[in-house]
Amino acid sequence: MRAMSRTTTPLTAVEEGVRAVADALPLTNTATTVPALALTSLAKSYAGVSVLRGIDLDVARGEMVFVLGPSGSGKSTLLRLCNRLEEPDGGSVRLSGEAVTGPGIDLDAIRRRIGMVFQSFNLYPHLTARRNVTLALRKVLRRTRREAEATAMAALERVGMADKAHHYPAQLSGGQQQRVAIARALALEPEVMLFDEPTSALDPELVGEVLGVMRDLRQGGMSMLVVSHEMAFARAAADRVVFIDQGRIVEQGPPEAVFAAPQHPRTQAFLARMQGDWGAA
Amino acid sequence: MSPLERFQDAFLNAEVLARYAPAILDGVWVTLELSLLIVVLGTLLGTALACLRALEIRALSLAIIVFADIFRALPPLVLILIAYFGLPGAGVFLSAWTVLLVILGLVLAAFAEEIVWAAITSVERGQWWAARSTGLGFGQTLAHVVLPQALRLAIPPLTNRAIAITKMTALGTVIGVPDILNQATTAQSFSGNASPLLLAALAYMAIFLPLVVFSRWLESRLTWVRA
Questions:
Q1: Which of B117, B102, B111, B116 is nearest to B61 (CA)?
Q2: Which helix (H) or strand (E) holds A34?
Q3: Residues with Cβ within 8 Å of residue A243, at least 6 apart in sequence
Q4: How far is Cα A224 from Cα A143, in angstroms, rounded to an integer?
Q5: What is the rounded CA–CA span in Å between residue A19 and residue A127?
Q6: Does B132 contact chain A (CB < 8 Å)?
Q7: A201 touching B (Cβ < 8 Å)
Q8: Can you tell me the ipTM of this complex?
Q9: What would the DSSP string read from start to end of B142-168?
């Protein structure tokens, strides 16, 4: 979406020149135009009931895409298909142009490059915050203990949790747990991050700290696919909003457009329900 | 003889006690050694089977379930007699000691498999998702994330079951394993006096009472963990 809007503005001569050079260098070109995550015709059904009926969705590099939709519309399933925690029945997923779906793929190596944050945090309760972060660094990336701990502390620092490194999850608030969970994903330097309703299990006063971390990530250029009901945050921080209903993308666009003037009746009805009390404008 | 003296003579005959105490002590070592090996063999095999079941390969899971159900359903004494008196007919000769170790080890493994499997399934699916999403493999996730949580849940029931099964080493008496009870019944028939049996009871208490107390302590310490 951002890439498209860029092409619609008139190019200056310098930009033309840059583009010409970029086009001549396939590698550079690839790095700038291949989406971080590309979903094509993704489909999933459970016991014959279609949950997703062909989702086409790209997340550009550095883009934050928000997925909205009524509960049961398959949003969380969509995220779990992206790193194949669940197997899609059809369609394909590509990560920075590389196939995620298909035969002969080192799935663990691919998953490592896709960060995931869950509604219920899913921190390992028997490990401290720091060891939650170091586990994959040690066992997947084979870092030494010293390296892993330095990386983990840097990641915890980024989410403002360095001072709680030696706490167990049960000793942390929900917001703190979710920030540690974000650090756990972040430490592996993922190319894209998936957020599955990251604030839905939090008390209202703890939502802000998690959204703050996500905003920082967005500003740091992280590519993000977010399933969430935080409308105000989507409006303020998202590059694009995608509305899913009955397993299909019904409408998408920049948040200001989708929120202010939804085109599809189902989007209108959903937004009216979600924003009912404080007006849909 | 007064009733009290008759009781003392029957159960606390000093001469008989002194004569047979060394034999019963020999039995203590046999029982201890067997118990230890049964616990190690049974819990390790049971845990390994539960882990294999977590792979969710249908045929493998079915085989494990059949094994666990049969060995939990049959009285261990029946299995011991079949193995000791039946197997030689099929050309397999095992010593009484080996039969007791293998059968009780397998019975404990059957129960341990069920206990550990139940604990593994009670670990939330989100724990698997979180670990796999960071690139940890199935085995790594099991070893570093799921099993540490599952075993914490499994240890109290596992301890109880281990005590229940190792007590059954007394069944070895029927096939001639020289354990505590065997030494005591032999001594009782030679001396015509029940004092060795009381000594045997005391020996069992010395071995198992600390374990029972230990399991009670473990239970009180570990049950709050998931609250």
A1: B117
A2: none
A3: A68, A69, A249, A250, A251, A252, A258, A262, A264, A266, A267, A270
A4: 26
A5: 49
A6: yes
A7: no
A8: 0.84
A9: IIIIIHHHHHHHHHHHHHHHHHHHHGG
| Bridge partners, A52 (sequence order) | A44
Closest chain A residue to B149, measured at CA: A126
Burial of B59 (0-12, 13-18, 19+ CB in 10 A): exposed
**Under a CB-based contact definition with an 8 Å cutoff, are residues B207 and B184 in contact?**
no
Q: Is the pLDDT of residue A182 over 50?
A: yes
Mean of all residue pLDDT scores within chain B:
92
Q: Which of B133, B136, B152 sits opposite A116 (nearest CB)?
A: B133
Is the pTM higher than 0.90? The answer reads no
Give A3-26 pLDDT, tens digit per residue: 444 444 455 555 555 555 555 554
Q: What share of chain A is helix, strand, coil (3-state, %, to 5)?
A: 45, 20, 35
Residue with tokens 């694009």: A240
End-to-end Cα spacing for chain A: 23
Least Cα separation, residue B55 to chain A (angstroms)? 15
Percent of residues, chain A, with pLDDT higher than 70? 86
Q: What is the band of A147 on the pLDDT scale with cuts at 50, 70, 90?
A: very high
pLDDT tens digits for A105-129? 999 999 999 999 999 999 999 999 9
Those residues whose C-beta lies under 8 Å from the C-beta of residue A19, and which sit 6 or more positions away, are A11
**What's the average model confidence in pLDDT over B27-48?**
96
Which of A83, A116, A139 faces B144 most closely, judged by CB atoms?
A139
Q: Please give the Cα distance from A22 to A154 (Å, whole number).
A: 34
Residue A90: phi, psi to the nearest 5? -160, 165
